[in-house]
Each structure stands twice: as C-alpha cells, then as structure tokens.
Amino acid sequence: MSAVYVLIANRLRMVATAARRSRWAQRLVAACFLAIGVALLFGAYLFFRRAFLFILSDPISGALVLRYVLDAAFAFTYFLGISSVIATSSALLFGADDLNWLVPKPVTSASLFAYRFAAAIAASSWPVLLIALPAIAALGVTFGASPLFVVVGLAVMLLFVFSVTVAGGLLSFFLAWAFRPLPLAFRKFLDLAAFLGFGALLVRRVVPQGIFEAFNVSTPAQVAAAAVRVHGIFAPLPSHPFAASVLSLVPSGVDGSLPQLLSYAGITLVVGFALLMAVASVAYVRLWQRYGETGLTASISDRPAHIGSRRSFPRAFRWGHSFLFEKDLLLFARDGAAMSHAGFLVLLLGMYLLIVRAVTHAYAGKASEQFFAYAVTFAFAAIGYFVLTLTLRFVFPALSLEGRGAWLEWASPVHVHEIFSWKIFFWSSLFTAVMESAAAIVVLLFGLPTGLGLAFAYATFLTVLSLVTFGMSAGSVAPDFRARDADEVATSPMGLVTTVGGGFYLLIMARYMLGMVSSSFSGQPFDVLALVGMTVVSLTVVASSWAMALHFVDKMEVV
Amino acid sequence: MLTLELKSITKRFGSTSAVDNLSLSLKAGEMYGLIGPNGSGKTTTLKVIAGIYRQTSGDVLVQGLDTLASPTKAKQKLGYVPDDPVAYELLSGREFLHFTGELYGVPREEREGRISRLLAAYHLQGVADGLFAHYSRGTKQKMSMVAAMLHQPSLLLVDEPMIGLDPESIMITKKLLTDFVVGGGTVLLSTHTLSIADEICDRFGIIKNGRLIAEGTHAELSAKSDRLGTLEDVFLALTSGV
User: Where are the domains of chain B?
Assistant: First the structure.
C-alpha cells in the first residue's frame, strides 16, 4: 500500500504548490466559494434546528416526524453522494489524466484504484457536509449534545462518507462495465437519465402519497401504526443504519440499539469495501483502458472510429460566414463534458423555478401582491444568475479555449470581427432558446398577464444578449490561449470582473423588473419607463462591450 | 512582382526582440528555406507573415498587398502550416478540411474534388471521417498540409513540416511542395531538418537571434563560410560565434 500513500502525498503536494502559485483572483474566488459553502452549511443548520424545535413542539407525533426527517435527509444525502461519485467517475476514476503515466509503472491495479478512490471520497463528501452534518449538529444542539453524541456523530459522519463512496464506486464500476462499448457522450446521457430515474424513485419512496396525513395522529395506536410505516419506508435503504445510529442517542423511538446499528453499518461497509477492492484489483486498469479506447482520450493511431457518414461541412448553415455558427454548434454538441455541465445548470434552474413557484403557491390568497412581485422578480433574477453562470463557464473562456487551434481562423481571410461576432451570435442564440423557455415557464406558472409576460420575455432576451456580449468582450481582453480548462480561465482577474460586472447589471435589471411587476400587480398602468430603462441599460452594455472587444481582437495575437 | 517581401520586420515581446529588423524577398516559383537554431525567430517570422502575430515595426507584403492594410486580401493568398498542427479536436478530418475551405471561400464543388485528390495523395481517405482528437501527430500534420493547399494559395508558409511524418509521407510532402513550386507557387519553409531543406530548397536564409545573418544558395553560403560540405556543415560554420 506504500505506493498509494506516495501517490496521495504527491497529489497533495501538487495541490499545495498550485495553491501557493495561484493568482489573487483565483484565491479570491476560492475564498468566495468557501464563504458560500460555510453560509450554506450554517443556513442548513439553522433550517434543521428550527425544524426540529417546531417538530418536537408536538408531544404526540414529534419524535416520529423527527425520525422521518432525519432518515429522509440521510437518504437524499446518500443518493446525492452516490450520484456525485458516478458523475465524476469519468474524470476521477476512469479518465484521470495522470493514469496515462501511472499505468505503465509497476503499481497494482488495486493501488491505482485506491489512489483515485481518495479523490472520489472528496467528491462525494459535499452532500454529507451540507445536509447530514448540519442535521446531526442541529439534533445534538436541540437535545443538548453529550460527549458520546459528538463522538458517535463524527464516527457516523466518517463511516457515512466512506459508505457512500464505496457504494458509488461499485455502481461506477457496474456502469462503466455495462456502458463500455458506448460513446462518452451517450454514457453521460445514460448516467443523467439514471440519476433522474433513481431520484424520482427515491422521492416516490420517501414521500409516498398520504405520508403527511399519516403524521396527524392523536392516539398511541395511531403513532405506532405511523411508526411502522416510517420504518417500512427507510429500513431497506442503505442510509438507514447511519441515521438510526444517531437517532438512537436521542429520544426518538427508533428501533435497535446503537451497538447493533453501528455493527450492522460497519459490517456492510467492510463487505462493500472488500468487494470494491476485489473488483478493482481485477477490473480497474482493464476498464480504464477500455474507457480510453471508446472515449475521446485515445484510439489506435491512424485508425480512428468514424463519427458518422462521410458528410461534408457545413450541413445547414451555408450563407455568408454562418458556417462559423455551425462549427461552434458541432463542437458544443460533441463535447460531452460541456453538455453535461450545461444540462446540470439548466436542471438546477428548472428546480429553482419550481421551488419558487411551489413556495408562492403555498401562500396563494394569503400573501400580499408585493410578495408575488418579489417572487416573479426572484424568478427573473434566477434566470439572469444562470445566464451569468453559463456565460462565465462557456462564453467568457470561448476565445481562450480556441487555444492552439486558433491559428486556423486567425490566419484565414475571414476578418476577426466576423469571427468574434459569430461567436456572440452563437452563444446568444443558444442561451436565448433555453432562457426564453425558462421565461415561458415562469409566465405560465405565475399566470402573468400577456403584456407583462411579453415584457418578461423581452427582459430575458436583453439579459442574455447583454451578458453574453459582456462576457465575450471581457474574455477578449486578456485571453489565455494556452489554457485548456474553462474553470481555470473563468477564475482569472477578468473572470472576476465579468462576475462582478454581470452581477451589478443583474441588480439593475431586477430593480426595473420589480417596479414593472409591482405596478402591474397593483393594477396601475404598465410601467413603460422600466422597460425603456432596461433597454437603455442593456444596449449601453452591449454597445460598449462590443466596441471594447473589437478594439482588443484587432490587436489579439494567438499562439 | 515579388510573392513575399519583408521590409525591416521587428517583433518584440516585451523587451525581447524575437525578430529584429528582418528583410526578405521571395519570388514566384521559389522554395526558400528559413533555417536557424531553436528560438532564433523562425516560427515568429512565419506567424507575423500569417497574421497571427502583429509586427512591432516593418512591412509585410504578399504579392504587393500590405498584410496590415489589406489583411483579408493578403491572407487569401497565403497557406499556413503551423509547427504544432493542433485543430478542433471534435471535428472530423473531413469537416476540418471543409471548414478551412469555407474560411477561404472555396466553392463546395471545387472543394470536394480538391479534398478527395489531396486526401488520396496522402492515403488519408480511410481516416478522414474520424475525429481530429483521435489522429496521430503525423496524421494531423498531413491534414494541416492538405488544408493549407486547399485554396490553391500563391505562398505557402510551412513550419517544420516533416516532424512526425513517416518516410513515405515525407516523400509525398516533398513532392507536393516541389510540384507546388513548379506550378508557380512560392514556399517559405522553416525547418531544422537541414538534409531535406538542402534537397528541396533553392535558397536559404540563416536566422539567429531574430536577425538574418546569411542568405543565398548552398554554394553561396559555402563561399561565405569558407567551408565546403553539407548544408549542416555550412550552417554550423555560419552560426557558431555569431
């Protein structure tokens, strides 16, 4: 196992070196993310703390609901953790760059896997940190944590992270084996489909019909019946022994003693880990090789797989220089990682909009018009935030990531202004298609009147156009043509400028939106001035960004 | 009219001069070898001519067209093969060639015929529909060569064309370049492979520290160096101690 320690120590040294050599902008971004993470953790703790206090105020069903909430939190944490391992398995387990030089070394398959498994543990720990840890902490504080609770809580946390990663590792092996002949992008799609499918199944299991009514109990017999139902929901789930271990330390009425539950969790963990290492010692390197051959990372030289028919190019965009649009579209559509990233962000946007709608639905008829105006504005701001996130990830680095292949366009007789303009057009069109769909969903969910709905769609279009142009322009100021990673480019000083500038623009737009929606909801005449203000601000951003960008692209030198 | 004229080109990166007051003239039907040690400024010179870098001072004229004043017209006459043939990894070779053809405005029908002919010359038909990411370095190099010739330029800028090529591909490349010159084209070839340069180039420019230190045919350079022998011998004699 010494090879594993050497490899992990080397990796940690590399991370430390990278941190020491990082630019101030990258450190600032890292600090911001850390602050956001701590804020989320604290927010989750406050949520659980208040929820537990509220739940326990009911002397009859309190303990039962507490069991349900904690078991549900552990179940979703388990699911998200496993999903993280699977989602990152292509990068962390089966597609890691450093395996290209590690595999030819005399290191066993099991050691190589153990080394990469450490990275998988880190990748799967975030849901535990953001959900399970605050839940355990809130539970401890609510009941006045004893030293035993703290020790058991920490032990359960560590075992839980390990268990999640083991399960995720086993599933990753199965999926990598089952999908091994398929192209990378299709595998990603199947992974996503599996994520959504299992997520839906879990929601159906944990939140079955009538479950909330089942907690309306008033007699001991009803409580007992509801407890049997709750136990039946969670007992088969692998997360249950961990949740039950923690619950056994407080008066929750959970079945089983702490030693029993911990032993059960420990035994399943040891068996699972042994099975995982046995599989890894036989199959890890083989699957890694197979993965590389069918993915985009390697193939037999000069005999690459055909990607389709012998069709020429462009296929659809044949006027003027529109072939530049088709080229970017093809490259984006074939980039499995980029598509997954974008898909995940759009999925988050969809979930966010549904949550905003669900919350406002709960207050229908109770809250003021201003409350609903805020909700619509939040939805608009959410769309803008996701446009900004997508811009930072895809648009801002677009010129830089042309990279060492940029010589082709730069040496060609197509003017760089055209190349730049077509890029803006491409990303604007793509984001407009997605974000106008999101805008349509908001308009339908909130039942906005036609005029306001059209204004909402128009404001969304302005936001997309402005942020894309601004992001592309900022990316042209100091492009890094040697960079290969979009996140590396996005955390440059100009990436920070894009984030701050884009955020400031969104604040102004959201303010106008709030005014427009408030006046509409309160029956006043439509606020045309707000619409004019949005237009002026956006066109100013577009025009100034464009002018700045053309100045820089004229002087741009590629590598 | 000269195909290529460099007038006192200087290219600085910060305080470092990669190319220093370089002047060159190439006429039609000429194969010119730009040779020099590592870091002497050969690639930078080619990139300035191709419009990838912008010169700090001096003029570049391609068939009389100033590359700064008329960049698109000048670039239309150029074909460029970079030293590192990196292109869009997620396009197939065929798509890459068609994309290049579109950039240079080659009509689709003409493009199809030329792509087929050039792919056949390099025996690349079997791999043309695979992704660029899957190609070996040699295949990428050959694809870049095909792409540079697609629009039938007047001037080919070729940076280290033989690296990564197998012997047969080197022979094919030499033939493509010599045929191109015989047809009236001009080639500016930057290379370290002096034996091949000696074989196919008419004239040579020796560049060191961004400056042209000698220019002429093999015989003329031998006379300047007081050294008879291979181009390598002459090159070493001229560059040592400069």
Answer: 1-77+154-242, 83-152
> In CATH, which of 3.40.830.10, 3.40.50.300, 3.40.50.720, 3.20.20.80 is domain B1-77+154-242?
3.40.50.300
CB-based contact B131 A296, cutoff 8 Å? yes
State phi, psi for A414 to the nearest 5 degrees. Answer: -80, 130
* Best CA proximity match to A186, nearest among A280, A329, A90: A90
Give the separation between CA B140 and CA A312, rounded to whole angstroms. 18
pLDDT digits (tens, 9 = 90+) for A287-325: 887 776 654 433 333 344 455 446 678 878 878 889 999
Q: What stretch of H or E contains B21?
A: strand B16-26
CA quadruple B163, B167, B173, B174: dihedral sign: positive
Q: Which two tokens stand for residue A13?
A: 């040294």
Quote the pLDDT of residue A362: 63
CA distance linking residue B76 with residue A468, whole number of Å: 31
SS (HEC) of A283-322 = HHHHHHHHHHHHCCCCCCCCCCCECCCCCCCCCCCCCCCC
Q: Which residue of A has its CA nearest to B73?
A: A413
Closest-CA distance of chain B to residue A404, Å: 6
> Nearest-CA residue of chain B relative to A401?
B88
Q: What is residue A441's three-state secondary structure?
A: helix
CA distance A261 to A360: 41
Q: Could you tell me if A465 and A421 are in contact, meaning their C-beta atoms sit under 8 angstroms apart?
A: no
> pLDDT digit string (tens) for A255-285?
777 788 888 888 888 999 999 999 999 888 8
